[in-house]
Design brief:
globular; Endonuclease III, domain 1; 2 domains; mainly alpha
């Protein structure tokens, strides 16, 4: 499939999902740093566990200065509901320590960088990979880098929107219009959770089935 065909199929998928789930207005008010900590907490867990961990974190620590000064074990204890707490606590402390060395607890300086440079800058922080960095850039800084989590990867892969050997973040960043990234990202996640599930996708109920090259495999099971 060439790039023109990829883009045409992607636009069709985007439109079908918007019709199914409705438009989403972007109304994100969190700072880039708070978004980064939320996204670290969300790794390999669900939204409820992330939210409980974040609430307990800020019940325990009154601000970034106190959080940065805490022991990793103290942070891990506060965020235990998110799972992988030791790893995530180490990342959070490392991020804040690095920012303090840079001059303050803020990521606002990323506003002055281009999308690719800001993406690379974020990935230099401990525990921050492509998806985490992309979420911060798209949600909190309005920079056009498309985040790819396990649901987005699965759905776009089954649909053939990202070809074999292509990199999901880079390919979708190139194919998706900037103004569509926020909504399309969230629609793909919802579709992955509710319909295009990992083990038993509900292809018979899927609005995308007629253009899904993977559907026949699952319909015949």
């Amino acid at each position: 499939m060439n790039k023109s065909e990829q883009r045409e199929n992607l636009i069709w998928v985007k439109n079908e999902l918007e019709t199914l789930y409705g438009p989403i207005e972007k109304d994100w008010k969190e700072s880039p740093l708070k978004t980064l900590i939320q996204t670290v907490l969300s790794q390999n867990t669900n939204d409820d566990n992330r939210d409980r961990a974040e609430e307990k974190l800020w019940d325990r620590f009154t601000g970034y200065e106190e959080l940065a000064a805490a022991f990793v074990g103290e942070i891990a204890d506060a965020i235990s509901t998110a799972g992988l707490q030791n790893q995530k606590a180490k990342s959070i402390k490392g991020i804040l320590t690095t920012l303090k060395e840079k001059g303050g607890y803020s990521l606002d300086y990323l506003k002055d960088l281009g999308p690719e440079d800001a993406w690379k800058e974020l990935m230099d922080f401990d525990g921050v990979g492509k998806k985490t960095a992309a979420v911060v850039l798209l949600f909190a800084l309005n920079k056009p880098i498309f985040p790819v989590d396990t649901h987005v990867r699965r759905v776009t892969g089954r649909l053939g929107l990202v070809g074999d050997g292509e990199k999901h973040h880079e390919t979708l960043t190139d194919l998706v219009d900037e103004d569509d990234m926020f909504q399309f990202h969230l629609h793909l996640i919802r579709h992955g959770r509710e319909t295009c599930k990992a083990r038993k996708p509900w292809c018979e109920d899927c609005v995308l089935v007629k253009r899904c090259p993977s559907a026949e495999e699952y319909l015949n099971q």
